[in-house]
Amino acid sequence: MINFASVKLENITKGFEGKTVLDKVNCEFFNKEVHVILGKSGTGKSVLLKMIIGLLKPDSGHLLIDNENLGEVIKRNNLILSYIFQSSALLNSLSVLDNITLFLDEHNVGTRDERVSKAYEILSDLSIEDTANRMPSELSGGMRKRVAIARSLIISPDILLYDEPTAELDPINTKTISEIIKNLRSNKSITQVVVTHDINFAYSIADKISILEDGNIKITGSPDIIKKSKNAILDSI
Questions:
Q1: In the chain, which residues fall in CATH 3.40.50.300?
Q2: pTM value?
Q3: Helix (H) or strand (E) holding 143
Q4: What are the tens digits of pLDDT across the range 137-187?
């Protein structure tokens, strides 16, 4: 794990085909916190995550970690970021176990026995060890989400990014994902950034919440501060 204070988005702007999606966004994610970006669908939440991990480049502005360029810090210090897609993005041709170990297998990290042992340890932590030899098509939506989290955790990330992790989940599975995120905060040195439109889920997991509306961060604060803000977006999500 890399010891750092914060990741900062400084005047980040991004547009597509002449339409501005994010307009001079400023936000800061502190180490070991759960920071939720809350907003309606189509407001650019996923775009923001994809720029942090490098899948998209900002049109202008800076991505910084401790006031240095994020990309340079990643290269120099082997900072590890991992991304959990809204769809889970599991490979249907591979078993759960092989989905989880895929990155380590491709890069020959340790022995196969060590990779499998690590995968089973994470599956056990997430209470889904009995899924190891099953195929993704055999899993429920909630199980698929947990497998996607396990795949991200096996590379020991410093920063974990979640794109709508409770989308299409029932209340019971939503609560399970909430507990996983809170347990990671308590037991791992991971900075977690979560984008969601689920207000109650956001309140249940967040140290900080930022409201994204009209391409901009309108307010950032603790769940209590956000509840008291009476921001109109809270009634429209």
A1: 1-80+158-237
A2: 0.93
A3: helix 141-153
A4: 999 999 999 999 999 999 999 999 999 999 989 999 999 999 999 999 999
